[in-house]
Every structure is written in structure tokens, then in C-alpha cells.
Amino acid sequence: MLRLTLAGNEIELYENEPVNLSYQFSDIQDINASSSSFSQTFRVPLTKKNQDYFGAVNEFGLITTWDPKVKVDAELTYNTIPVMRGFAQVKAVYVQKGKYADVEIAVFGETANLSRDIGDAMLTDLDLSAYDHPLNATKIEESWSANLFSGVIRYGLPDKGQNWTSSNIWTSTEPLEHGDFTPYFQASKLFEEIMTDAGFTYTSNFLSRIDDTYLALYNGDLSIQGTENPNGYTLLVGFQSDTTLTPASSNTYYPITLSDTTPFFDTGSRWATDTYTAPFRARYRLRLNVLGEMSDTSHEITIAVTVNGTPVWIPIEDEEGGVFNGNFYSFLLSSEGVFLNAGDTLRLEYKMNTGGSHNVTFTGAGFGQEKTSLEIVSVTNPISGQTVDVAANMPQMKQIDFVSGLQKMFNLVFIPDRNNAKHLEIEPFNDYMASGASKDWTNKIDLSKDITIAPTTDLQARQYDWTHTNGKDLVNDLVFKNASRVYGRYRVDDPVNDFASGTKEIKTPFAPHVASYIPGTQYAVHRMLVDTEQTDKTIKDPLPRLAFWNSQINGTIYYQNDANTETTTDTQYPAFSQFSALNATITSEDLGFGAERPFHSVQANPLNTLYYQYWRPFVNELYSSDARKLTAFFRLTRSELATFEFSDKIYIKDTYWRILSVSYDATSDDLVKVEMLKVLGDIRDCFWLPVSINKADGQIRFQNAAGTLLYQLSPNFSSCCTKYGYIYNTTTQRCYQDFEQ
């Protein structure tokens, strides 16, 4: 007997009303799909018990407490065997003869709940405060040795707009600031945080294998954002009334006492009489307004902003009284501002070339037109010492887009637990299919019904593209403008299929994290800046970027110590790239879908691109000349329907198949319609596959299925060279890595 419960309430059903169910493989393959496993609509009577739940939905014009816009948890069971879990949607209410009423319902599979439960939340909405930490040299160094949160956060050196070259790169006298480094967050841990926040648990053998894959924590701000709000330390001070000052001696700086009392302010309580004490290491932008009268027009006055007693900004220097008197001065320090360390003191000071009885009267009486005042207009995010707000540094990205982005990169499937819709098994397609059980359904097929064996042309597109999104940084943009594609795209084209049409694109929301050399150096970093003549080269709305942690690579860097008082020297720099090793070789992994020419030296292009590792077997089942789709009817028990997995390999006569969809009436023991795809096994990507490289001359070595090794490929097999990004020499019939950079 079929039972339906909505939000824990049992709903009475018609005894003979069919409830047709459909399960589909695409349900576990695309968490953002608009459809999922579902029931066709069916009607339930508006009995008294059902009306207690739905309310008087049959009454015209009556507003009930039941909301048709809200998804309701639903479960269908057959004799206690779970049939489908998910949510229900009420489609319509039918009233017959003005007296009897039915409610039309559809039930949708539980996998659609993941996207629903994560919703539109952003990465910045996650509570990642457990990973907040001080920004200093100690923590940066700890990240390189996996001692900062056990490797969850590591610091790298992408160029975020500093526009480093050999002429302005870090030196022992001009070392890196702590804020010049950029934190990267472990992708697998971020995935875990998202799932936990949405109330899901999961098991996965795969996610731990990408522990060396990281998300760059960069959202367009050159500085690292901390828990301190820099705008909370602005300042406006001035005179409450006209104030006369007389220096005790000539050519000696004296502080000017200014007030922070209304209408002035000191948001961070850092002003004391005549001194501002910096709360942290940052750049402070200043505005100075001056109006005054000197008692002797022939003498000169100098007004300066001093840091720790040393003048750093002298907007008025040796100005004669005849010019100074009655002249309103207004100055705004450049956008870079004044650089202050935590605890540095800033003052407004003056001196006159003759002291004693000579004085100056500053116009005060509040803030307004032509008054004297000092203002800290803005403060940058702290460059050192503050507590890093990890969530605030996340790129602008929805959590569901991060999850679906990983799904598209690694061809992940999400399989709900039959007894707990909030628990998922998450594995790549290849691993999931390999884990399935073998089941013999040869004797279960109904031979009285048509058995359809068809080619897969109706499942094919003429062209498939796997691609990331253009990051608009100078390297990615160069490729996009010159090649009309995103760096690392892979395309499957089927020009010989006259019946395939259209283009299907699998596109991630991530930008390629391409490493290239800082001009004039051997430092390979991700140059995340725009190619422009303007001074500001930062990308204002950068796309999120994933990269492999490549450990520390030989190359001297200089950076501030914790106290910003000395320079620390390290003979290695932290490296991130799209390859699992910066000096990649054939067996390395590549976060691009297709092989590309690198913008830094490698031993050889990796064979293991995202397409080759995670998508190739899936595509072969669709595009191989041996690919077939089977549609037939089977006699399956409710227990068999309740326990089948899409990973099961179904044996029929002499061939294995995998299930694409299952459709049946849950209220009867009638036949079950099943669509299947032929299991082809692992088809070699090419007759000869690259396995190693001769480092002395760059020759690629190949191997066939029988294990034969060779360097020389006949012209008939030259595509086995070029498709992996190598160069085929027609004269020598050998394949080479492209070393031109």
C-alpha cells in the first residue's frame, strides 16, 4: 500500500489513483538542474483529514494558512519501503459539482533540496571566524609548513595590482609588507563548511584528494581585510575658537593643540591633546585646512605633519606673513597617504623663523568654510598586525556556485542516503560507477514489450565545450583576445555526425589561475592585474580562482618581521599554479580542462587535465561508435526498486548497461520502464599515450596498451602528440615539449 506524508502529516490517497514515478541519472549529476526525479501529478481527495492539513482550499476567495509557494517535505513509501523522498508542490485544486474537491500534487526528488537549502547565501556569509588569525610574519611562515590550521590556509604571492617588475620587486631595503601576501583557503575545507552550514553531512573518498587545491582569498582590495574597521579610526580636529600661538624660540617645531570636541570628532579615540596614535600599520590619508594671521608680515612660517617627531608632509614651508595672512590653504595628501606603524604618533606642528614676541593666530570657532582643521579622511585596511577576517576576504561568489563549480570541474555526483536525505555520498563519476554492484536482469526483461536499442545520437550535441570563465587578468585576457576562448578550454567536436546539433557548454565560475613570470625575473606567480596604462592595475570585481599549492620554490624574498622593524630573508617563495607541481611533468595534474602552453617553464605538459581524468570515460559512452541506449520493460520488485543505484552495472544477456532513468506506477506491481546506456569500459584516449619526457632534449616518450614504449611516432599517430599540447616534428617523427615561453 502506498503512503504519502507531507511535513510529517499522513495524506489520504485514492485507492486506484496511479502515482507514476520517474528517477533519472541527471538528478545526481547536476545539483542546479531545474528538474529532478519526480512523480507525475496525481490527485488526493480533500477528505476531512486532508483538509485539516491543507485548509479550506476549495472555498472561493478564502485565504488559508497553507502557503502554495513554500516547498513541503514529502515522502512516498510502499509497504514501509521508501519510494521517494523530497518535497511536494500543489499544482491545483479541483472542485466537482460544487461539493467534492481534489488536490493535485507533484513530488520531486530529494537531490533538489541541496540547491534549495544552500540557497543564495554568499561565501562571505559563512562563519569562518575559527580561522581568523593575526597578519604577521609568524603566521605567514606557519602557513607554508602547514602549521596554520593544519594547512587550511596558506599564503601566496599573486600580483594583485602591485605590478611587480625587476625594477620594483622586493629588496632587502624595500621588503614585502605582510599585506602583499594573499591567503588561500583549502577548497575541500571550504566545501565542508558550506555543507555543514546548510545542514548536510557527507562521505567522500575524493575530497581529501584535493587538499592541495586552494581558493585565493581576494575580492578586489589590495589590502587584506581584517576584523578591525579602518573607517572606525577617522578623525577631524580643529579649534573651538581663534587661537594665538607664540613659539618660545625660532626654527623649532612646536605641536598645535587641536580639539576633537563637537563639531569635531575622533571615531577611534586615538587623539590626545595634540597627538594621534596609529592603531595599526596602514596608510592614512590626510586633509589640512589652514587660515591664520602672523603678527609680523616679514617673518616666515612652516606647518608640517610629523610622525614620531619627524616631518613627513610639509604643505606650508617658509611662507612669509604677507602671503600667509588671510590666505586660506586647503591640502589633500595623495591617495597613498602617510604610512604609519601601530603606535606611531602623528602631530600637526609649526615653526617660525623668529620666536619670542612674534606669534600666529589661527582662525577657529568650529569647522566650516575657511577654518583651521586637520582630518584623517580615510584609513586603508591594515597592512600588518590586524586580525584577518577570513570570510570578509572571500571572493564575491554564491556558496552554491562554489559547490557546482567543483562538481563541473571534477564531474562529481551527489547521491542522497536513502534513509537520510541530509547525508550525501560525493564522488567523481568514474569512482562512483566503479563502485556499483553487478546485477543480472536477463530474466527480468519483458520480451512481450518492444525492446529498443538505439544509437546515442539523440543524447549528443554537435560540440561540447569544457571551460572556465575569462578572468580578465592580463594573461587570461591575452589568450581570450587572440584565441577567442578561455585558457584551458577543451572541445569535443563531432563533425561526422549528421544528426547531432547545437553546442553544450560545461562552464565553471572560476577563472584560470595561470602562473607567469614577473617581468625580468624567474618568479612565477599569478599576475592578477589588468593590462592598462593607468597606475591602478587592480581588477575591481575579480572572479574566484582555484590553484594547487606548489610548496616553496627557490627564489629569495624579503619581507617585514612581526614588529616591522627588521627584514626577514627567505631563499624560497610560496608558489601556487594550475599544476600540481610548478615544474610540472607528464604525470602531474592540471586544473585546466585541456592542455595549454604554460607561461612558465615546465618539464612537460601534464596528461592529467580535468577532462582527461574526470570527463573522458563519461563522454566516451556518448560518442563512441559502440555507444548504445537500451529502452525496455522489466519486472522488478518494490525491494529491487528501493535499493537500485545508478552505479549498478546491469547484465542483460552478454552486455553490461548502466541506468539512465526508471519510470513506474508506485501503486501497482506493473512493469517498470528502464532506459540504459551501454557500459564501454575505459577507452584509450589515443593509441599512444605520453608517459615520460627525456629532460635532456625534451622528447616525449609514449606507450601503447600492450606496454610498448617508443619515442618515434609515425605521421598517422601525430595527433597523439599534438592533442596534449606537444609539438610534432615531421622530419624526425618525434614529439617535443614546447620550451618557448
Written account of the structure:
With 741 residues, this protein is mainly β. Among the domains are: 2-117; 230-379, Jelly Rolls, CATH 2.60.120.40; 689-736, no CATH class. Helices cover 13% and strands 35% of the residues. It is built from twelve helices and 49 strands. The strands form twelve sheets. Strands 3, 4, 32, 33, 41, 42, 43 and 44 form an eight-stranded mixed β-sheet that branches. The protein has a six-stranded antiparallel β-sheet with strand order 2-1-6-7-8-5. Strands 14, 17, 20, 24, 25 and 28 form a six-stranded antiparallel β-sheet that branches. The protein is flat and about 120 Å long. The mean pLDDT is 90.
Concise synopsis of the structure shown:
13% of the residues lie in helices and 35% in strands.
